[in-house]
Amino acid sequence: MLELLSKVDKIKKVIHNKRVAILFPGQASQYKSMGMIWYNSFPKYKEIFDYINQKVNYYYRDFIDVDFFSLMEDEQKLNITLYSQISIFTVSVCCYETLREVFSDSQCCLAGHSLGEYSLLVCSGCISLDSGIDLVVKRGYYMHNYSKDGTMFAVIYSFDNSSIELLESILKSYNSVVANYNSYNQLIVSCPVECVDDLKERIKNEFSGCKIVPLRVSGAFHSHLVDVSNRYLQKEIDNVSFSNPVVPIYLNSSVCYDPLEIKEVMKRQMVTPVNWIKTIENIYNSYSDVVFIEVLPNKILTNLSKKGFPSNIADVSYSVEEL
Question: CATH code for 2-147+223-319?
Fold first, then answer.
């Protein structure tokens, strides 16, 4: 408990007299026992965690049948899309709500990476917690069960705008896309399973010294290859009421205020590439004295900023995990 209170004090010092952009992580941020120290230390965290756990166990057994306490200790399940999305969402929302008063006077905007956009919709008041639970459980279910025809891999390389355009042109001939523009040294590719080996070889030949890392995912997310999953989720989103966010939110690089616009963006989100580079750059250029704070779990977004962005952004990027 004392260690976490010290962490809160460090957060207060980092954001003092600054504008704070809160970042919500996406899939791949999961790890065993994530957030459980917070659960045992902060009543607000425990209250929300228990509510989501009970809600999922009571209403969503047809989609996901697991108790969160056992899930958080099951590393194998946490790495499966069906389980990872609701678990990351839960930890992120619980963390933000626990620190809401710490952030309240300083936060200038919220942004999320893929799944993280659902966390920010709840935390900004754009959708209710119950709606967020509903959409995230079903998103994980549809992506897990209806996205089997594609795969994803990371390309690690020192990119600039010209080399990014070259990669995009190569991918077109393989019916593939850049799914995530994560940073200037990491792009994620979504492609059909049948061409993945040939595509990797082509990329290695064109980008000398690059590193290719396969991702353990159940589909080629953020591409046309998951259109079936997206159509299922669109019907669910249509049933959800959206409100004006109480704080500015960035959805895939652009600030959004209008509930109808936000709803339409989310209906296309699963098949739209994530441009995290533009998101971070747009926020940095829009607010003076801004600092980026990544909520739990993990520090993946912070590491992207520190390793794949210019020093002006890297030097103002922090995570709750590491502070």
Answer: 3.40.366.10
